[in-house]
Specification:
Elements lengths: L3 H13 L18 E5 L2 E4 L4 E4 L15 H12 L9 H13 L5 E5 L2 H16 L3 E6 L11 E4 L2 E4 L6 H4 L2 E5 L3 H11 L3 E6 L15 H11 L3 E5 L12 H5 L6 E5 L9 E5 L1 H4 L18 H16 L2 H23 L4 E3 L4 E5 L32 H5 L3 H14 L2 E2 L8 E2 L6 H14 L1
Parallel strand pairs: 3-15, 5-8, 5-9, 9-10, 10-11
Antiparallel strand pairs: 1-2, 2-3, 4-12, 6-7, 11-12, 13-14, 14-16
Bound molecules: pyridoxal-5'-phosphate.
Pyridoxal-5'-phosphate binds next to helix 4.
Length: about 450
């Protein structure tokens, strides 16, 4: 595989971009391939190599790389009217109406420019609304590059997980293991009156994929409610990806106070949003006092791209297609690991998937989850399948990243760059892509 152009570009990039990239996860080894263009479910790099793309921009590209006519027309129309105004536009209202119509817990929306901005603002809103400072976070949960959640440690003490974050900030955060109801009860018993919110992804999507065990999301809801704290569900990945238009909260029937969105709702352009109940949302400035603002927030081009993407999804069985292919992929992977790597766990739901290189094989395959881990207590792998971020970390992460990922790339399959981040099927993928991908897995494992 010729990669001379990518190599030369990386050489240049190292002189002007820290680490040669603008987001660390892109710095694959020994150097990243630079993308020239997308083509349906594929990308083509700077040397003309073609890959089946399951990264999909780390989640936003529900429709893949060729946007349907109605989406490109809306984008072009909006650009032609002028890039942005610093005054409200109709499309922001329409997009917020769409989200509020489909997502059960959302009555009002504030658009921002990234998932990080959404979680930062949601945490501030929760603190402002409750008048409390502490935030409970999940170990292995990811909520972007923000101070309150970039923490390590456990309930007995948290420290910043990055230099540059004051220890005093981390001291306000309480990390607990995902899927551990008792751990949550313990921190609420000790600190209940000081906890502004629990922030959690409904499915760990950046450290796994790890789905919730039966009853866990319900316990997040009931424990926070009992103690007068808010539940912030971070649906930056799962929003309009898992559970279709109702999002993961609809699929799992959980009713958060606040939801954070990003990725899919911008149709491939920079976006984030906070959604929730009127009483809480109206605490944001200007109706309330919790400061929140942004020059580019509700950017018309992003709004047009995102809204038209969601409308297209609503009208064209997009979720049937991506979920069906996701199902085929996970079933195929289950058959492959049964033969070739029985200790590995197939994870994912809807159009999310990941093969986790766990270390223990099940005793039998009778009653095994067929299309990705569902945390079914009757599955013979149940005790060994990951329940939280720590379990995923204990998997064979080096083997995944250093041996497996390059082998998949060599065969023309572009996966997310490490053991932890979810991969995504798009509307542009085909059954042929899935068959080729499964063949590549057979050779790489
Ligand atoms: N929350 C979750 C669950 C995410 O997966 C991410 C990004 O991957 C973020 C927040 C941060 O979003 P962004 O990268 O748009 O800032």
């Amino acid at each position: 595989m010729n990669e001379s152009n990518s190599r030369a570009l990386y050489d240049r990039a190292l002189s002007v971009l820290p680490g040669g990239v603008n987001s660390p996860v892109r710095a694959t080894r020994p150097y990243p391939f630079f993308i020239k263009r997308g083509d349906g479910g594929h990308v083509i790099d700077a040397d003309g190599n073609r890959y089946i793309d399951y990264v999909n921009g780390y989640g936003p590209l529900l429709l893949g790389h060729d946007l349907p006519e109605q989406v490109t027309a809306a984008i072009q129309r909006t650009v032609a009217e002028g890039p942005m105004f610093g005054a409200p536009t109709e499309v922001e209202v329409e997009h917020a109406e769409f989200i509020a119509r489909h997502v059960p817990s959302v009555e009002m929306v504030r658009f921002v420019n990234s998932g990080t901005e959404a979680t930062v603002s949601a945490v501030r809103l929760a603190r402002g609304y409750t008048g409390r400072d502490k935030i409970v976070v999940m170990q292995g949960g990811y909520h972007g590059a923000q101070e309150s959640t970039l923490v390590k440690g456990d309930a007995s003490g948290a420290a910043p997980s990055s230099p540059g974050i004051p220890a005093e900030f981390a001291a306000k955060s309480i990390p607990v293991p995902f899927n551990d109801e008792q751990a949550l009860r313990n921190v609420f018993e000790a600190h209940g009156d000081d906890i502004a919110a629990v922030i959690a992804e409904p499915i760990l999507g950046n450290y796994g994929i790890v789905p919730p065990v039966d009853g866990y999301l319900e316990s997040l809801r009931s424990i926070t409610e009992t103690h007068g704290s808010l539940l912030i569900l971070d649906e930056v990945i799962t929003g309009f990806r898992v559970g279709g238009l109702q999002c993961a909260q609809g699929k799992f029937d959980v009713d958060p106070d606040l939801t954070t969105f990003g990725k899919v709702i911008g149709g491939g352009f920079p976006v984030g949003a906070i959604g929730g109940k009127v009483e809480i949302m109206e605490q944001f400035t200007p109706s309330g006092d919790v400061f929140q603002a942004g020059t580019f927030s509700g950017h018309p081009v992003t709004m047009a791209a995102g809204l038209e993407t969601l409308k297209f999804a609503a009208e064209n069985k997009v979720y049937d297609h991506v979920d069906d292919l996701g199902d085929q992929l996970r079933r195929g992977l289950t058959d492959i690991v049964k033969d070739q790597a029985p200790s590995y766990t197939v994870a994912g739901t809807d159009s999310m998937f990941k093969l986790i290189f766990t270390r223990d094989a099940p005793d039998s395959w009778d009653g095994h989850c067929e299309a990705g881990c569902t945390q079914n207590p009757d599955c013979p792998r149940y005790d060994a399948c990951p329940k939280n971020g720590g379990d995923v970390k204990a998997a064979e992460t080096d083997r995944w990243e250093r041996l497996f990922w390059p082998k998949m790339k060599e065969q023309g399959v572009f996966l997310t760059a490490n053991q932890f981040e979810s991969q995504f099927v798009s509307y542009a993928h085909t059954e042929t892509d899935i068959e080729q991908t499964l063949e590549a897995y057979k050779h790489a494992l």
